Amino acid sequence: MPPKKNKKEGESEDKFMRAARFGRVKNDLSMGFVGLPNVGKSTLTNILAGANHAEAANYPFCTIDPNKVKAIVPDQKFKYLANTYKPPSVVPAVLTIVDIAGLIKGASEGAGLGNAFLSHIAAVDGIFHLVRAFESDEIVHVDDSVDAIRDLETIQSELCLKDKETLTKVIEKEKERIRKEKGIARSADVPLGETFQSAYDKCAKLIDSNTPVQTCEDFTMGEVDEIRNFGLITTKPQIYVVNMSKKSFLRKGNKWLPKIQEWVNSHGGGQIIPMSCEFEQELLDLQDDKDGINAYLQECEDEVKKMGLSGPGFAVKSVVPRLIRSGRQSLCLQSFYTAGPKEVRAWTIMKGTAAPQAAGVIHTDFERGFIKAEVANFDDFKALHKGEASMAKVKEAGKYRQEGKTYIMQEGDICVFMHNVTASKKK
Prior knowledge:
This protein is an alpha/beta fold. It has helices spanning about 5-20, 40-50, 75-85, 115-125, 150-180, 195-210, 220-230, 245-250, 255-265, 275-285, 290-305, 320-330, 355-360, 365-370, 380-385, 390-395; strands at about 30-35, 65-70, 90, 95-100, 125-135, 240-245, 270-275, 335-340, 345-350, 370-375, 400-405, 415-420.
C-alpha cells in the first residue's frame, strides 16, 4: 500500500489534475513558451536546456520554427540513488520545452507569422506564458513600450480569438455529423446533444470573457469528454512567468507584479513565477566554475542587504528548478525509478498510471506479460539501506512490497517488474 498523502498535498494535486484534465494521456508531453517577441523566450529556453539550442537574437521573428530542447528535471531522490549505486549509466527524467516564436496583435487573423505560430501552440500540451516586466534600451519592444498588462491582454485575446474560431467549426462539424447520422435535411434545425450544448455554451462564455477554458471548475465529466475533442488552445495548463530585471528579481518585486497578480486573478487564476533571464544567464555562464558561482551569489546577496532586505524570502537562488518542476507538475507527470549496478534511471509517467502501464514505458513486453511489481518507497530505502547499494535491508524490515495489476504508481517508487512473455506458437 502506498504512503498516505497529507491534506495539503492532496489539494495541490487536485488543482493540477483539474488543469490537465483536457490533455492527452501520454508520457512524453511538452511545455511551450508563448509570448510577444523579445520577452525572453529563446533566452529562457537556452537557460532551461543549459545550452544555446535556439538562436536568441534581438529581432521579432528570429525564432520561426519551434525549437525543442530537453530540460533535465531537478530530482534529489534520483541524485541520491545515483550516488548510492554509482552505476556506469545514469539517465535522469527530462521535460520537453518548445520555444515558439512571438505572437503579435492580429495573429489569430494571420498577422506576423500568426497562423503558423498558433498551430505550434496547439501542438504542445502546456503553456509557459512569458511576460516582459523589464525596461531595456537595447532590447526593442514590439509595441515600443513595456506594459505587462497590455501584453497579457494581447496574448490572451489572440488565444481566445483562435478558440472562438475553433468553436464555430466545432459546432458546424457536430451538426454535420448528426445530419448524416439521422438523415436530417440541411434546411432543418439540428438537435444538439444536451452535454455537447452545455459544454459548448460554457466554453463560449469563458472565451468571450477572455478567460482560459482550463481555469473553470464547473465542468461535468461528460462535458470534459466533449471539450477534449474541441481542440481548444486555452484548455492547456498555463503558468505565467514574469521576466524581470536582475535588480527587481533580487528585491523580489517591481511595479508590474501586483498588477499581473490582479490580472491573472480576474482571468480565472493561475500560478505566477517571477524570474530574471538576466540573473539566470549570468549564473549559467559560470556553470563550470563552482567558486565563481559562489562568489556571484554572495555578490547578489550583498546587494540585497544594501537594499535593506533580509530574511528567507530574499534568499538568492535560481528559479530554473522550480520552473521545470512546475511545468512537469502542471502536466501531471511524475517519476518512478529503476536502480541497479548497471544503471539508475528515472522514468516518466502520468499521475494515476497503473503498474502494468508503467512497466510498458520501459518495454511493451513488460506490460503485455506483466506478473507483478516489486516496489520500495524511496523514503524507506533512504532510511534503511545503511549505505548499501542494495534492497537487502529494506526487505529485512518488511518494506519491500509486491504489487499487482491494480496498483497505482506513486511518485518516487523504486521498482522491479516481473513479466513473462511467451512467443506465439507456429501454426
